[in-house]
Give the backbone structure.
Amino acid sequence: MDAIKITEAVKRYPEFTLGPISMSVRQGEFFGIFGPPSTGKTSILKLILGLLSPDEGRVEIAGQDAAGLDVSARGISMVFQNLALFPHMTGRENIIFPLKERGAPEAEISNRLDMVSEVLHVSHILHKNPAQMSGGERQRIALGRAFAAHSRAMLLDEPIAALDARLREEMRVELKRLQRENNQAFVYVSHDEEEVMAISDRVAVIIGGRIAQIGTPDEVYTEPCSIDVAGVIGSPPMNFFKGRFSDNALHFESDALGTRIPVVGTTQKGGVGTLGVRPEDIWLGETQGNPSLKVRIVTVEPLGGYTIVNARAGKQIVKIRAPGQVVLEEGAWQSVSVDARRLHFFGPDGVRL
Amino acid sequence: MTDQAHTGEARTTRPQGYWASVARDGQKMGFWFILPTFLLLLFIVVFPFFMQLYLSVTWWTPLEGIPWYSAWEVFSWFDNYLTLATDPRLWGALWRTALIMIVAVPAQFFLGMALAYLFIDQFPGRKLFYSILLTPMMIVPAVVGLMFFLLFQGTGPVNAHLGLPADFSWLTDVNRAMISVIVADIWQWTPLMFLILLAGMLGVPSDQLLAARLLGGSNWQNFVKIILPRMKTVIIIALVLRTVECFKIFDLIYIMTKGGPGVQTETISVFLYKQTFGDLEWSYVAAIGLTILIVLSVIAAKGLAYMARKQG
C-alpha cells in the first residue's frame, strides 16, 4: 500500500507553478526528494502535511483522500531543518510531548520513551535542555520526538544540513537504520545530492517545480532522463558537448571533441544534440575500442582518493575524475579516451535519446 | 645628522607638565571627562536626596518664614514619620493606588494578550486595525483624561448609550468614580500591553508552532505549552512596566476627578500633589517620599534577588 500518494497535484503561485506532481511513497520506503534550492521541494512537503491544499489533483494518505484532513489528523510527523525543538523543555519533555498531547496513559509514555531513547542512544541527555546539547544530540532528540508520535510517515526537511560533515555521515547511517527498524515511510528532502543518493531507496529529482525523474539512485545516476537531471546529479557535474548527429545516425560530431564519436543505441538521423559524459568516464590515455581526443591540462586538483583534472577541449573546459593520484603538467597536451558504453545522448529538446 | 635633528625635534615637542601627564595617562583624562556629568548628577540626585532627608525631620513649611536651610530651628525628630504611619488619608491613597493596579493591570494584560493572539495571523486590514489599536497610547494622558471626563458626564455619551438618566453620575459618585478612572486607564494602556505581547508572540518561531500542531496539540494546548513559556520574559517586562506606571498614575485622575469625590479616587501621586501644592506640607511630603522610596527599593531588591535565584 502507498503510505503517501500524490496524483497530478498542481499548486499555483503568482510567479511559480508547482506541478503537476505525481508520486507515491510505499510503506517502509525511504523516499528522497532532491532538487536545487527553491524548486518546490518544501512545497511538496507542505502538500503532504496539509499546510497547502493543491489547486488541482489529490493527495492521499494511507489510501484515504486527505483533502478534508486537518494537519494534526494526518498522522505524519516531521523533522524540521532547524529541528524546532521546544527550548523550554528538557529532552525528555520534548520527546514525550506528542504522547502527552494525545493524553496517552503514563505506562505507554514511559514505555515509548524507553524504546525511543534506547534506539537513539539519548538516555544520558534526557535531562538536558536543548541549549545544553550538542548539534548531534539535538538532532537525536528531534528525531526521537518525531518517532514517539507513532506516525504513519515521517517527513525530513534537510534534517542534517546544519551538522558538520563527519556528523552528517554518522546521522545518515543512523537515519537509514532507524527507518529500516521502524519500517516507516520516510520522505527525505535535501539539496545535497550525495546525501539523498546515499540514503534513499528511490529519488525524485525536482527541477523548476516539476518532477524531472523518479527512480532508484542508480537509475537516476546512470540513466538521467534529461540534460537537467544529468546536470544536477553527480559531482563534479557531467560534461556536455553540443554537436550534431551524422545523417546516417552512426556518429556524433562536436567541435569541442575534435573527433567523431560512434553513436550506439539511438537512431537519431542528423540534427543537433548534446553528448554527456561523466567525469569518471573519461580516462587518461588511449584505450582500446574507445574514442579518444587530445586535451590541454588546465589545473589538477588532487583530492586524495581521486584527482579532478580540468582540461581544455576545443573552447570548453572538461572535467575528468581520475582514480588515485595522478601527476600531470599544467599546460601540457594529454590524450584521453571516453568510455563508449557510458555515453549519454540528448536530443535538441534536452530529452535523453 | 638628519637622525639627530629628528630626535631633537621629537624631544622638544613632547608635552610637559600636569596637563601633559593627563593627556598621556588615559585614566586621569577619563576623570576629567566624566567630571561635569558627575557634578551635574551630584546636584540633581544626591543633593535633593539629602535635602529631602533634612526637611523630613523638621516641621518646616514654606509658610514658616525662614529659608529651608534654617529648618533645623523647627527640628521635630521623627514626628513626620510617626504621623504618616497612622495617616488614614495616606493609607487610603495607597490602598486606592493598589486597587487600580490590581484591577487595571490584569485587565490590560488579558485584553492585550487576547488582541495579540488575534493579530498573529495575517488578515485583510491587519495593518489598519493595528494602527487604530495603538492610537490610545499615543494620546497625551491629560487629553485622555479630558476625553473620559466628557464621556462620563451625566449628559455624556456613556449614559446616553447605556440608556441611563442624566442624573446618573459617574465622576461624582462615591463608587463609580473609581470605575470611570480604571476604565480610562485600561483604555489608554491596553495598547501598550498588546504591542509588547504581540512582539513576544511573534518571536516564537513558527516552526515550533507547526511542530506542536503536527504532534497533535490543540490550539489551546499549544498556546499554554509552547507560546506562553516562550513569552515569559516579555510577559514579566510588560507586567512590571505597567505596574510601575500604574503606581504613578496622576494625569488621568487629576483631570477627571481631581481625586474626588472627597478622596474617593485619590491615589498616592494625587495625594502627594495636594499635600505639596495645596496644603504646603513640604516636610511631611518629604518624609512620605523617602518612606515610599525605601519600601519600594526593598521590594525591588527582593524581587530582583528572587528572579536571579530562579534563573540561576
